[in-house]
Amino acid sequence: MRYRVVGTALVGLLAVGMVAGCSNDTTGGGNGGSGDALTFASVTSDKPAAEAVAAAFTEETGIEITLTTADTDDYQTTLRTQLSSGTAPDVFFVWPGDGNPMALQVVAEAGLVEDLSDMDFVEKIPEAYRVLSDFEDGTYVAPVSSAGIGAAYNLTVMEEVGLEVPQTWTEVLTLCADAQAAGKAAFALAGQTPWQVQLIPYALTPTLVYGPNPDFAQQMADGEATFADSEWTTAFEKYIEMNEAGCFQDSALGTGYEDALDLVAKGEALASVQVNASVEMIRQGAPEGTELRLEPLPATDDPAETRMAAAMGAGYSINVGTEKGEQARQFIEFLTSEEGQRLYADSIAGIPALDPEYEVDPALEPLMTYMAEGKTDPFMDQLWPNPNVQQVHLEVDQQLLAGDITVEEALARMDEAYAAG
Question: How far apart, in Å, do the first and last CA atoms of the chain sit?
Answer without folding.
Answer: 44
